[in-house]
Amino acid sequence: MKKANRGNLPALVLFFALLMLWQLGAMKMNAAYILPTPTQILQRLWELREPLLMTHLPATMSVTLIGLGISLVLGLALAVIMDVSPLCQKALYPIVVASQTIPTTAIAPLFVLWFGYGIWSKVLVAVLITFFPITITVYDGLQSARVEMAELLTTFGATRRDVFLKIKVPCALPYFFSAIKMAVPMSIIGAAIGEWLGAQSGLGYFSRRMMTQLDGAGVFAPIVLLSAVAMLAVALIAVIEKRVVKWRGEF
User: Fold this and answer.
1) In 10 A of CB 215, how many CB atoms?
2) Does 55 lie in the same domain as 16?
3) 145 and 109, same structural domain?
4) Please, how many CA atoms are within 13 Å of residue 135, restricted to the half-sphere of its CB?
5) pLDDT at residue 250 greater than cutoff 60
6) In this structure, is the dihedral angle defined by the CA atoms of residues 131, 61, 18 and 13, taken in order, positive or negative?
7) Do 10 and 132 fall within a single domain?
């Protein structure tokens, strides 16, 4: 525990140093509608805690969880298909990469036109942003399995399914958790972007509404809340990873 705390010390020192610079710079600028101080943002976050926590955060988290769930299913399926079939890999890989060249801010309004202001237009934005790192990272993890180990298992009569479950899946698990740690913040960002461009609730919608009122601290308050939720989620996934992936470094 002490070693972990010492390891986090440089990050904490840098974080508080940046906060101090922000505080001093914002105070010197004296234009809270453009750049509020961290203390003003925290004060506004406390003042708006009821609508943010009771209404808008649950709306954003619903979009995030649904989008992340769909991305997991889609990303894992594509990764396995590309690993099993070289022909599918040649056909799908360029399409998966090309999907990330589409500007999110350009296509998100189209999703709103097609699906309205309901949840699914935001979910599609989250899926579009999130499924790519899951697909590519898990595919790389499956491909990282040593050929010699697979061949040795085959010589003992193992089937392709045995090789996949006993060699490839363990090798891919660390990659899978890395993909999840990337996908969670990206899914939250996707949900917020979708809400910013067209929604009736959610932290992205709330931030945009505060911008129309020239409430700088109100704009930053939901952003800070989103960042805190994302960091907590990634920390939780890291704890689960340590408990599940106990063989890291053995392959």
Assistant:
1) 18
2) no
3) yes
4) 23
5) no
6) negative
7) no
9 lies in the same domain as 63: no
Give the domain extent around 56.
Answer: 48-244
Q: Is 43 part of any domain?
A: no
**54 within 8 A of 181, measured Cβ to Cβ:** no
- DSSP per residue, the chain: -HHHHHHHHHHHHHHHHHHHHHHHHHHHHT-TTTS--HHHHHHHHHHTHHHIIIIIHHHHHHHHHHHHHHHHHHHHHHHHHHHH-HHHHHHHHHHHHHHTTS-HHHHHHHHHHHHTTSHHHHHHHHHHHHHHHHHHHHHHHHHTS-HHHHHHHHHTT--HHHHIIIIIHHHHHHHHHHHHHHHHHHHHHHHHHHHHHS-SSSHHHHHHHHHHTT-HHHHHHHHHHHHHHHHHHHHHHHHHHHHH---TT--
pLDDT in tens, 149-208: 666 666 766 677 777 777 788 888 888 999 999 999 889 888 888 888 777 788 888 888
Residues 113 and 225 placed together within one structural domain of the fold:
yes
Write phi, then psi, for 244 (nearest 5 degrees): -90, -50
Q: Minimal CA–CA distance to 183: which of 113, 224, 126, 229?
A: 126
pLDDT tens track for 35-53: 888 888 889 889 888 988 8
Dihedral, CA atoms, 30, 31, 32, 36, nearest 10 degrees? -70
